[in-house]
Specification:
Elements: H1 7-39, H2 45-73
């Protein structure tokens, strides 16, 4: 039987997701700077970082807007 996820577990998952995103974005940014300094151009790591960042922030904005609309309806 499936059990429902409570609010605290969602909070923990959200926090873990944010820290994981920050770790990967920082690593890709450092890798991008390293490639720019050593090779004079960026590789695939920069588009991956930009795309991942855009997806992350778009989902955050969408969820916040959805929550605001729910609060306005009440």
């Amino acid at each position: 039987m499936k059990r429902r996820v409570d609010e605290y577990e969602w909070h923990i998952t959200g926090k873990a997701s944010r820290y994981t995103f920050m770790f990967y974005a920082t690593c890709l940014l450092i890798w991008t700077f390293y490639d720019m300094i050593t090779k004079g151009k960026t590789g695939w790591e920069f588009p991956i970082m930009v795309t991942g960042s855009a997806i992350f922030f778009a989902i955050c904005a969408w969820e916040k807007r959805k929550l605001k609309n729910l609060e306005d309806d009440e």
